[in-house]
Amino acid sequence: MLTDYYLVYALSGQQTDLPAGTLSFAPLYPCPMSLPFGLAGGEGTISCDAGGTWTLALAFGNLTLPVGGLSASGKAFAGAVSLGGGQSVSW
What we know:
Blueprint: H1 2-12, E1 15-17, E2 22-25, E3 33-39, E4 42-48, E5 54-65, E6 70-72, E7 75-76, E8 81-84, E9 88-90
Parallel strand pairs: 2-6
Antiparallel strand pairs: 1-2, 3-4, 4-5, 5-8, 5-9, 6-7
């Protein structure tokens, strides 16, 4: 079970530092793709369409990040992030 738990983070390349306000992804797969992510107090998906648009969708919990705190494959979300369960942001 623990192998499966850590595999999700390895595939998505998730790096989290919530006290510093950063959440980044460096997926091992090219776009289009969709992978789960997990945080203390929330879970959801990070996905990318064929055009290179990233979407972070929070299934439950809360996520708050400052401007520049969210990125995927080196492409940062331009604004601050404040999401509750069922909400998403795209960039």
